[in-house]
Every structure is written in structure tokens, then in C-alpha cells.
Amino acid sequence: MSLYELERDGKAQELIRLLRETDNERVKTRAAELLGNFDDHDDRRDVVNALVDAAQSDSDAVTGAAIDSLDELGDDAITQLIGSMAGVDLEDDAADWVKAKAYMQVLDSDVPELRMAAANGLGNLDQADAVPKLTERFRDSDPRVRARAARSAGKIGDSRATTPLENVLTDPKAAVRREAADALGNIGNRQALQALLPLYEDDDERVRRIAVGAFGNFGNDRPVDYLIEALSDESAAVRRTAVYSLIELLSNVPTDQSHEIRDTVVEKLSNTDDRSVVVPLVEILEESTQAAQRRNTAWMLGRVTSQEERDRVIESLVDALGEDDQMLRQFAATSLAELGDDDNMVERRLLKIVQDDGVDPEIRGQAIFTLGKVGGERSRKTLDKLIDETEHDVIRKKAFSAISKLGGRG
CA torsion 292→295→300→301, rounded to 10°? Predict the structure, then answer.
């Protein structure tokens, strides 16, 4: 069985055996990583014991994976490691501040793996008093310690870590820069976000992706130009993240600014040859659970859709007409009108909705409104007939308005 299958089937003891007995470092490292997913397993105690042993006696890669898995298993697992390696006596019911004090002492250990464990553990305790001690480790000789200290500072989220983290953004190790960028994104104050802007062109793809992902947290249009640049990144993951951040940005800025920013984004996108933004936008519309994101996406799709993705966009926008969110329906309708209907695809899909008596009248009314923008003679005849046959005042009123734009009744 593969390691993945062992983890999937809950074979903790077999993974423990591999961690302890195999000579293959890659297998041992992966086994240590997967054991971090066994928090609720009956053999959890054995899992923790095996990871504690591996953290003290194995290669750097295995040790790091073991410590990270102990971190995933919870504070009690890290506490056991600290106690095993340093002899620090920590009771299970000790207060967080007591544990934090012991962990901060261990940060000065001569053993880098112990400093790693202490840094990881402090990130789970949410004790702001630990931040100054963590920032001292940003200059640690071991990049693994620097990375974990930066990660934990980001988890705690205290603004005192902002300037020290900003200095870590020039660390020679990409893994450390990634953790610092992620931490600054979690802190999210003005200084932290500003520090991330130049990283959209970092040499490391994951650093760029993390930085670009944080740009959506801005409350103004400062990162728009950087996000537009990121849409041309050589990495598909960075480009996709930039699209999500643009939509998130539009959802976060004040309403009186969002219209101007939307117009700016559309103008910038119209001047680039990179049309890979459309697929992620469709995914946001179809999958997001955030109303503001979906509304902004529906509006955007009508202005940036490339011809090769037009059919999929139309299907998604038409589906959005059936949503409960009235504003989303309105944005979807206006975008369908913006797309036009040279091939009559929009008209055909909308007529199906209009002619279905089982569809909510409000939704049918939205479809009728859109037909008034894009429909042709077939729509005019259908609406003409509908006016005489419908019993719904909303439908009749919408039909009268739409048919007047299509040449009037026959």
C-alpha cells in the first residue's frame, strides 16, 4: 500500500513502523507528515511517542516534519516533546501563560530542534508577551527556527511583530520569506500590507502567491496595479490568486470607492492580453459563499469575458439569475446584456426561464428585463403573448417594459 493509502485507511501503526524502521529518508519524512493527521485516532498516544522520538534522533527533514506533526496534534503533543528534550515539567492543566514562559526559556536552547518546537508551541498559545522573544529568533542561525518563529508571530497577530517581520522579507531562504509574508498578511495592518507590495515579483513563486493573496485585505485601491501585474505572472497559481484578491479587494473597500475601483480594474484588464482571469471569476461566481464576492464577480464577467470562455460565462450568469440574492440577479442580468447576443445563446437560455411557469416570478421578471436588452423578434413575440396570458402583475409589468424596447406589441 502507498503511504497515502495507509493514512486514508487509518493504518497508524504501519506508518509508525515505517517512521522507526525504514532507511529511506523521504519515506520517513512523509510518514512523519501523515501521522500529524491522526489526532482522533485510537493509537494517538503511540503516534505522539513515535513523533517525539523522531524529533530527537533523526535527520533535519524528518525532525522538522515530526515537529510540525506534533504541532498539528495539539499543544499537549508539543508539551510532551519539550518535556522529553529539555526536562521542562509542564502539567497538562497548566495555564497558557505558564506554558508560554517555559517555551520562551526553551527558545534559548542550544538544540535547534528544541527551538523549533518552542517556536511552534508559542504560536498555539496566543500569548502576546511571547512576541518580543519570538522576534529575537528571526536572527537565528537555523533557517528552520527563523521560519517557525515568523509563522508563530503571525498566528499571534500582535502588531509589534510587524517591523521585525518586514526585515525578514529579505532573508536569503525562500521558506523564511514565505512565512514572514504569510505572517504579515495575517497581521494585516497598514504597515504589514504595505511591506508585502514589492513581493509580487519575488523570485520564489510561493512568496509571490502569498503576497498577492494578502492584497485583497487592503481597504483601498493601492494594490490594484500590483494585482494587474500579477495577472501576467508566469505561474498559473499566482495569476489565479490575483483574480481572487481583486474580487476580495472590491468586497473590502468602502462602497463609495468600489465603483471607481471596478472601473479601474476593467480598464487595466482591457489593456492586457492575459485573459486567464475569466475561469477563476466563473469559479468564484459558482463556488463562493460570500455575497459581495459573487456580486462583484457577476458584474466583472460582463466586462472582461474573452470570446473563448463566453459560453461558460453565459451559463453561469444565467444560473445566477435563479439565486435568492436580488442584487446578484441584477448584476448577472446587466452582465448578460453587456455580453450581447450575436449567436442568440443568451436569448435561448432566457426564454426557457421566461416560459417556465414553475420559476419564481421575480426570477422570470429578471430574465424578461434582460431579454429587453438582448432579445430579438422571437423574444418580442413571446413577451407579446405572455402579456395576455400571465396572471402575475410583476411578469406583465416587466414584459411591457421589455417589449417596448424590442419594437412594441404586434
Answer: 130
- Dist. CA 164–CA 135, nearest whole Å: 6
* Helical ranges in 197-309 per DSSP H: 205-214, 224-230, 236-252, 255-270, 278-287, 291-304
> Three-state SS for 230?
helix
pLDDT for 202-235, tens place per residue?
A: 999 999 999 999 998 888 888 988 998 898 889 9
Number of other CB atoms surrounding residue 253 within 10 Å: 18
Read off the pLDDT band of 307 (50, 70, 90).
confident
- What's the CA angle centered on 203, arms 197 and 209, to 5 degrees? 55
- Residue 52's alpha-carbon distances to 44, 69, 96, 101, in angstroms, are 12, 10, 21, 21
Q: Amino acid identity of 100?
A: A
Angle at which helix 377-389 crosses helix 345-354, to 10 degrees, equals 10
What secondary structure letter does DSSP report for 157?
Answer: T
Region class of 220: left (phi > 0), else alpha (psi between -120 and 50), else beta = beta
Show the DSSP H helices in 87-173 as ranges.
96-106, 112-125, 131-136, 143-156, 162-168
Pick the most confident of 107-111, 208-212, 324-328, 398-402.
Answer: 208-212
- Give the burial class of 28: count Cβ atoms within 10 A of its Cβ; 0-12 exposed, 13-18 middle, 19 or more buried: buried
Q: What grid cell was written down for 181? A: 509574508
Is the CB of residue 112 less than 8 Å from the CB of residue 144?
Answer: yes
SS3 146: helix
Distances (CA, A) of 156 to 98, 129, 175, 184: 17, 10, 19, 11
Q: Which among 255, 190, 247 is positioned nearest to 224, based on CA atoms?
A: 247
Which DSSP string corresponds to 72-90? HH-HHHHHHHHHHHH----
